[in-house]
Amino acid sequence: MNTGCGTMKAEPGRLRLSWIVLAAGHSRRMGAADKLLLPLGETTVIEQTVQALSRAGADTDAILVITGANHHRLAACLVRYPVRLCHNPDHAEGIAASLRTGLQAATADTQAYAVCLGDLPFIRPDTLRHLSATLARNPNRIIRPFFDNRPGHPVLFPLAFRDELLALRGDTGAQAVLAHHPDALLRIEVNDPGVVRDLDTPDDFRV
């Protein structure tokens, strides 16, 4: 695991995609537990998410796990994985601050950003590969998966949207950018319920 989050340079020759994994939330709807560290299968929620990205072929140092108050616990959990932990000092602000942290830490020659939820453990690696390949064929479009007509994650943004993402504030995430550019959105229907199955409440673990 790489715990530094300074800007790095990626290898040339193909689409350079940085995966911004939002993992700085407070899991308020889960109660006292940090949902990302809850056991799931043989590991934890966040490990399952990271494993999917790794198996999809994400480059070493291209998986940026954005942490908040839970930084040290996540660092201990992810020590075996090829990720970069980037602490968001303004995590109390909400999602926008975590997006800024990830955007600023991405490789200097990044061509696109995939905004991924930390609690997306059921997504299939082949779905992630499909989304990445679709972006490579449509480098000016925002790529978003849909399952059963429901919008899912991750959402892939070309470099052209970086400044707008950096300008976001509060806990609204990238919805404002999507709302401003409806014609740029490319809906990708996938046969993978994992794109919409995040884990917010105890009941989500019992489904």
Secondary structure elements and pairings:
Elements: E1 17-23, E2 39-40, E3 43-44, H1 45-55, E4 63-67, H2 71-77, E5 84-87, H3 95-105, E6 112-117, H4 125-137, E7 142-147, E8 150-151, E9 155-158, H5 162-166, H6 175-180, E10 185-189
Describe the structure.
With 207 residues, the chain is of the alpha/beta class. It has a single domain, classed as Spore Coat Polysaccharide Biosynthesis Protein SpsA, Chain A (Alpha-Beta Complex). Helix content is 26%, strand content 21%. The strands form 3 sheets. Strands 5-4-1-6-9 form a 5-stranded mixed beta sheet, sandwiched between helices. It is globular and about 40 Å long. The chain starts with 16 loop residues before the first strand and ends in an 18-residue tail after the last strand. 44% of the residues are buried.
The number of domains is 1
Q: Overall pLDDT, averaged?
A: 89
Our estimate of the beta-strand percent is 15-25%
Number of strand elements = 10
Which descriptor suits the 3D outline? globular
User: What is the fold-level CATH name, i.e. the topology?
Assistant: Spore Coat Polysaccharide Biosynthesis Protein SpsA, Chain A
Low-confidence stretches: none
CATH superfamily: Spore Coat Polysaccharide Biosynthesis Protein SpsA, Chain A
Key terms for this structure?
26% helix, five-stranded mixed β-sheet, 207 residues, three-stranded mixed β-sheet, 6 helices, single chain, alpha/beta, Spore Coat Polysaccharide Biosynthesis Protein SpsA, Chain A, globular
Q: Would you kindly provide a brief summary of this structure?
A:
The chain is an alpha/beta fold. Helices cover 26% and strands 21% of the residues. The chain has a single domain (17-206), classed as Alpha-Beta Complex (Spore Coat Polysaccharide Biosynthesis Protein SpsA, Chain A), CATH 3.90.550.
